[in-house]
Amino acid sequence: MASEPRPAPAADAGSDPLAARDAELARPRDAELARPRDAELARPRITSVPVRFTSARTRAMPESVFAHMDAAKAAARAAGRDVIDLSIGSSDLAPPPEALAALRDATADPATYGYCLASGSRPLREAAVRWHRERFGDPPGGPLDPDAHALQLIGSQEGLAHLLWAVADAGDAVLLPDPAYPSYFGAVAVAGLEAIALPLLQQNGFLPDLDAVDPRAADRARALVLNYPNNPTAGVADEAFFDRAVAFCRRHGLLLVHDFPYVDTVDGEACAPSVLSRPGALEVAIELYSASKSFHMGGFRIGWALGHPEAIAALARVKGAVDFNAYLGIQRAAVAALARPRSAARRDALVFAARRAALAAALAEVGWPLSAPPAGMYLWARIPTVAGALAADSLAFCDALVRDTGVALAPGRGFGPNGEGYVRFALVRDADPLREAARRVGAFLTRQG
Ligand SMILES: Cc1ncc(COP(=O)(O)O)c(C=O)c1O
User: Fold this and answer.
1) Whose CA is nearest to atom 16 of ligand 1?
2) Residues near 24 by Cβ (< 8 Å), separated by ≥ 6?
3) Please, which residues bridge with residue 152 across strands?
4) 317-337 burial string, b = 16+ CB within 10 Å, else e?
5) How much distance in Å is there from the Cα of 145 to the middle of ligand 1?
6) Pocket of ligand 1 contains residue 227 by CB under 6 Å
């Protein structure tokens, strides 16, 4: 069974280094892993592979909250529950038809069948730079150059993980928001880095208090990671905040990494600001974009980075050892999507805004009032006290909720210690299923109270 601790190895752990590693791994990593679970939840676990082929970096990676919920959903389905899955931020809207047509055409074009070297990715880099100019104008430091300031990514998640390898050495520190998109923690562990947590608190609008960061910690860090509109909190940053962040990074010699996949999810006519448009930013910042959220193409695995030429070149070098760029047809699909008029992005943002309003209203009706944020694909909600002991244990809350009602949410704890006590609703279903989810959540809370 997946969650059972392995039996302690027979060898003398004191004298045999491999046995010592075995013994270390045989210890449950925390009480949660030691909890007996249903056999339905069995899934591959790091500790089930021979330890000599598992690096310390790999073992340092936290368990994936999404994998946990995947197993909990499978168990609920197996038990006959109708699952409403709001645990993953995978957009259910349709990719742009012109992107799908470009991909279809590309599969019939033999010129797309070979390895795509860097020069082959130029059309996407040009399209990304053009898109940024049309949306935000030229950065104060001068226009972006597709060859110096742009790079294609296999999604912003891939980009961030390899960027950390590219710009920091094992043992270095990185300033990381808490809560944050869970893959950040794995990426930091794999790069052998130390994470210095920047709490994102509701009373600060989920922005980090940069004045509260110990200057010695900031001096020894290599990068500051930000993400606005934010996952999971849906917090938004304004230009004044980015100006402070740029000044902070310049003062402490940090690379400002702005993970920006939710650029297109802001309500109304306002644009989520690009940090690259702030004075001085191009000298310290890199911004990561994604077709997953802007164009509902999460499965296609395509994104791009814009920003500081040295960071771009370092990332390109690391990626050169890892991948040959995305399939050219997928790059062409992204180019087609980037040429869409802004009105298309606005239309999609309105869909998420309407869902957000519907879910917030339905939750308020069942006694879970929330303030709906002005952006993003999520509602980030403190578990109400009526949930009793479950209010302080988001993983237990989500396990019980999906088991009893089929509603799957993401437990806040998976986003970092400051996420404990919260859950995240992903707005990836229409208003009616969202209302039904709220109704079931309400009945569940009533049973707890
Ligand atoms: C903050 C953040 N960064 C990155 C990603 C992953 O983006 P991509 O699909 O481009 O790898 C997500 C996905 O939910 C996210 O929320």
Assistant:
1) 231
2) none
3) 304
4) ebbeeeeebbbbbbbbbbbbb
5) 25
6) yes
Q: Considering the domain 97-339 in this protein, what is its CATH number?
A: 3.40.640.10
Which residue has a Cα nearest atom 10 of ligand 1? 155
Q: Indicate if ligand 1 lies below 6 Å from the C-beta of 378.
A: no
| Distance (Å) from CA 50 to ligand 1 centroid | 31
Domains in the chain: boundaries: 65-93+343-448, 97-339
Tell me, what's the pLDDT at 25?
Answer: 39
265 touches ligand 1 (CB under 6 Å): no
Cα–ligand 1 centroid distance for 156 (angstroms): 6
65-93+343-448 sits in which CATH class? alpha beta
CA of 261 to the centre of ligand 1 (A): 6
Distance from C-alpha of 41 to C-alpha of 82, rounded to nearest angstrom = 17
Contact 238, 375 (CB under 8 A): no
pLDDT tens digit string along 110-166?
999 999 999 999 999 999 999 999 999 999 989 999 999 999 999 999 999 999 999
Among 154, 163, 164, 181, say which to mutate for ligand 1: greatest number of ligand atoms within 8 Å of CB: 181
Tell me the two tokens of residue 230: 């934010």
pLDDT tens by residue, 296-328: 999 999 999 999 999 999 999 999 999 999 999
CB 102 within 8 A of CB 335: yes
The Cα–Cα gap between 185 and 128 comes to: 28
Reported as a single tens digit per residue, the pLDDT across 228-257 is: 999 999 999 999 999 999 999 999 999 999
Distance CA 36, CA 59 (A): 21
Mutate to test the pocket of ligand 1, among 262, 290, 380 (most ligand atoms within 8 A of CB): 290
Q: Is the dihedral of CA 377, 382, 387, 391 positive or negative?
A: positive
Residue among 214, 271, 269, 282 at smallest CA distance from 237: 271
Centre of ligand 1 to C-alpha 298, Å, is 9
More confident residue, 66 or 364: 364
Whether the pLDDT of residue 209 is over 80: the answer is yes
User: For ligand 1, is residue 290 a contact (CB within 6 Å)?
Assistant: yes
> What is the pLDDT at residue 8?
35
CA of 447 relative to ligand 1 center, distance in Å:
35
Predicted TM-score of the model (pTM): 0.89
